[in-house]
């Protein structure tokens, strides 16, 4: 194992499952073995598969995320993962508040890893249309490559 990353959004049914799937695909392409997971700050969808629109856009891009199940972030995640990456700024604020004192995980904003997109959110597509899921997929796929460079070095 050369690195570990947890992607976090609100519900763990749209953005962070897509980020997990995109990152698994990019890592597999490069023959890298990393621990990759996702979680939500909220518990509304625990145990559910990703939203059907997220599953569809991932599959259209060759990535099957249908086996994923939503879970809520837990205190232990702040020790288990070297990197915890928030899909938007409000999630990052919540993660900073949830982080136990002295926890080792490095927190970051997903699009801070992408040149020219620093400080931006991956827009929440949950209340949107298919097109919003396509935009979110493009963002997470682009970002996965950038995050991989950070995670693979430790
Ligand atoms: P996600 O999208 O955070 O990208 O998984 C959402 C999914 C569900 C809700 C909000 C955002 N919700 O309020 O149920």
Percentage beta strand: 5-15%
Q: Could you please say which CATH topology applies here?
A: Rossmann fold
**Structural class by SSE content:** alpha/beta
Q: Please report the total strand number as a whole number.
A: 4
The end-to-end span amounts to 10 Å
CATH-level-2 architecture: 3-Layer(aba) Sandwich
SSE order in H/E notation? EHEHHEHEH
Average pLDDT: 96
Q: Over all CA atoms, what is the radius of gyration?
A: 14 Å
Q: Write out the distinct hetero groups bound to the structure.
A: 4-nitrophenyl phosphate
What is the percent of helical residues? Answer: 25-40%
The tally of structural domains comes to 1
Q: Largest sheet, described in full?
A: 4 strands, parallel
Unreliable spans are none
CATH superfamily: Response regulator
What general form does the structure show?
Answer: globular
**With helices defined by DSSP (H or I, 4 residues minimum), what is the helix count?**
5
CATH class: Alpha Beta
List the strand order in the largest sheet: 2-1-3-4
Account of the 3D structure:
- The protein is built from 5 helices and 4 strands.
- The protein is of the alpha/beta class and 154 residues long.
- It has a single domain, classed as Rossmann fold.
- A 4-stranded parallel sheet has the order 2-1-3-4.
- Helix 1 links the parallel strand 1 and strand 2.
- Helix 1 crosses helix 5 and helix 2 crosses helix 5.
- It is globular.
- The N and C termini lie close together (10 Å).
- 4-nitrophenyl phosphate binds next to loops.
């Amino acid at each position: 194992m050369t690195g570990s990353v947890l992607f976090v959004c609100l519900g763990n049914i749209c953005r962070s499952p897509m980020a997990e799937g995109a990152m698994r695909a990019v890592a597999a392409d490069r023959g890298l073995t990393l621990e990759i997971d996702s979680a939500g700050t909220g518990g509304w969808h625990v145990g559910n598969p990703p939203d059907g629109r997220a599953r569809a856009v991932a599959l259209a891009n060759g990535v099957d995320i249908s086996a994923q199940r939503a879970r809520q972030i837990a205190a232990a995640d702040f020790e288990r993962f070297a990197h915890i990456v928030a899909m938007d700024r409000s999630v990052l604020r919540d993660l900073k508040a949830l982080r136990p004192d002295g926890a080792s995980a490095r927190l970051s904003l997903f699009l801070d890893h992408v040149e020219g997109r620093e400080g931006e959110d991956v827009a929440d597509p949950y209340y949107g249309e298919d097109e919003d899921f396509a935009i979110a997929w493009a963002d997470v796929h682009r970002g996965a490559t950038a995050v991989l460079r950070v995670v693979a070095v430790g």
